[in-house]
Amino acid sequence: MAYHPLDETTIADFIAQRPSMTKVFSDFEALSVSEVGDGNLNLVFIVQNDAAPAESVILKQALPYLRVAGDSWPLTRERMRYETQALLKHNELAPGLAPEVYDFDEAMSLAIMENLREHEIMRQGLVARKHYPHFADHISTFLVNSLFFTSDLYLTGPEKKLLAATFVNEQLRKLQEDFVYTNPYMESDENNWNPLVAAEVQAVRSDPALKMAIADMKLAYMTHAEALIHADLHTGSIMLNERDTRVIDPEFGFFGPIAYDVGAVLQNLILNYLSHYGHTPDSAERESYQSYLLDMVRDIWTQFARKFDETWHANNHGELVPDKYWEFPGGQQAFAAYRQHYIHRLLQDTAGHGGVKFLRRMMGIVNVWDLTSIEDLEKRAVAERLAIRIGRRWLMERKSVNSIDDLIGIVQEETADVSI
């Protein structure tokens, strides 16, 4: 079938023709279709059997352009293959923490997958001050399993290189290189920001030391092919409830720096922390939820570091430092010390990549709903100025970071005297 974009009038017939869908739908006579996508790249639809509402799927189709920018910005449809490959790999390495894939049509650039009916987008739940008691455990497990088991710490050199060759993803990588690490910090037509923080935006753009640090992190993003990263792991790419967590939308996936994914998760939680200066007027309620978010940040990193160390110790099958490398008196102690050294470097890189992502969200093409949903621009500016200051410090002070409490401490110091 030649590629053409589907819509609410054509999807039911398409679904009925897919043999894989007989495992999902008991019949195809009462299918309803509704578009639900609000993303920047793709069309997303829910398809449901109205006669048996539990029978439903998500159909996601790539358009031949960047949706957020319009058809004037062409983009390869190959990204749907990359997303499907990544989802299948995530289901293999972190079962139960990604949606199941039912079908993939390469010619039509679409995937059909599990509809997470009982889940919500995490970003929305956090703005509503919801609690997710298992999230730190779930996301740290996802991060460790998806990153460690695709790295040189576990795979042989040939295994990793062959896998990396299937995730080149050149166009979406270029988008991130431009939209995260370059364009927000210079004149570029697609940039946008709250006019009340224009002075802070210009200060970032004209700070030599800061721009050199951003360039260093861009170089790491472009060249540190450490593991298969999700590369867009924000709270809008996580669906969950109080019991279950699923990571969605890995279309940006490629072999990049491990810390990029970790930094994205932690930085998004801090952005939500800041958003409550606009969303939660009651100071006691706000401080309580902000404390909960900082505890979550600490728990995620602590669990990630512990699980990463334990997983590496038990599965040191890669070629970076094979077991024979440590066969000398005191070798196991040296191996343990090296693992801690490696994880400490990941924390510092987490601060660096997270710091850049704070900045890009305040002045680039894609802002963040936690903040843009604050209607009062003055209150929104309070959070945005804090994000710029925190992002700058995470980035500029990254080489002196020794614990997650150093990063949390920066947040606490910058927000200590906020008045709204």
Identify the notable features of this structure and list them briefly:
50% helix; Phosphorylase Kinase, domain 1; 420 residues; 10 strands; globular; alpha+beta; 3-stranded antiparallel β-sheet; Aminoglycoside 3'-phosphotransferase, Chain: A, domain 2
Give a written overview of the molecule.
The chain has a 5-stranded antiparallel β-sheet with strand order 1-2-3-5-4, with helices on one face. It has a 3-stranded antiparallel β-sheet with strand order 6-8-9. The chain has a two-stranded antiparallel sheet with strand order 7-10. Helices cover 50% and strands 10% of the residues. The N and C termini lie far apart (57 Å). It is built from 14 helices and 10 strands. With 420 residues, the protein is of the alpha+beta class. The chain folds into 2 domains: 11-114, 2-Layer Sandwich (Phosphorylase Kinase, domain 1), CATH 3.30.200; 120-414, Aminoglycoside 3'-phosphotransferase, Chain: A, domain 2. The radius of gyration is 22 Å and the shape is globular.
Note the topology.
Blueprint: H1 11-16, E1 31-35, E2 42-49, E3 56-62, H2 79-93, E4 101-105, E5 110-114, E6 120-121, H3 122-127, H4 135-148, H5 157-165, H6 170-181, H7 198-205, H8 208-223, E7 227-229, E8 238-240, E9 245-247, E10 254-256, H9 258-279, H10 283-314, H11 331-363, H12 369-372, H13 377-396, H14 404-414
Antiparallel strand pairs: 1-2, 2-3, 3-5, 4-5, 6-8, 7-10, 8-9
Helix pairs in contact: 4-10, 6-8, 8-11, 9-10, 9-11, 9-13, 10-11, 11-13, 13-14
